[in-house]
Design goal:
This protein has about 180 residues and is mostly helical. About 60% of the residues lie in helices and about 0% in strands.
């Protein structure tokens, strides 16, 4: 997030708003692509595709707090948690997402961002606590994501077109 924060500040004068900048960082597309998409799917020209971000945007906060708030209200529930939930269900796993209790969230938002972000390390406080109970190498090691072999993924997605969401989208598009 910190390097993205620098990018947001860098492109501040080029783009219309920091909401637009935030949406681009989260995977949105530039306006010319949006225009083509709207034409292709008959979406009204005046449709505001940033409405969801604007709903949770607080311009009274400093840039770091704004991004934290937008991430918490938009990216986390609409992307990250959905992904964890769907992939865990796909493989029959029970997952618990750490640090999402009300007390922990209140604590996280009460900490000044300048204490949270150090040398572009977004988990500086957490890693310092972990270092007390393990080693520096372990606490500050690079993240290792869960990988699924392509053959296993193909086996699970072999009948992807029978998926409930895909079927619903096909029915909508085909009329």
């Amino acid at each position: 997030m910190f390097s993205k924060l620098n990018q947001l500040e860098k492109y501040n004068k080029i783009l219309k708003s920091d909401i637009e900048q935030y949406s681009l960082q989260k995977g949105s597309v530039i306006n010319s692509v949006k225009k083509d998409f709207k034409n292709q799917f008959n979406i009204p020209e005046d449709y505001d595709d940033l409405w969801f971000f604007k709903l949770h945007y607080n311009k009274d906060l400093d840039i770091k707090r704004r991004i934290e708030g937008l991430d918490f209200k938009t990216f986390l529930p609409e992307h990250a948690l959905v992904r964890v939930d769907r992939n865990s269900m796909l493989f029959g796993l029970e997952c618990r997402v750490p640090f999402l209790s009300n007390r922990m969230i209140e604590l996280a938002f009460s900490i000044d961002p300048k204490h949270k972000f150090h040398n572009q390390n977004l988990k500086f406080i957490l890693k310092n606590i972990l270092e007390k109970y393990s080693s520096f190498e372990y606490a500050f090691s690079n993240k290792k994501g869960l990988t699924i072999s392509s053959s296993l993924r193909k086996a699970y997605y072999k009948n992807w077109d029978r998926n409930e969401n895909i079927s619903m989208i096909k029915r909508y598009i085909e009329g």
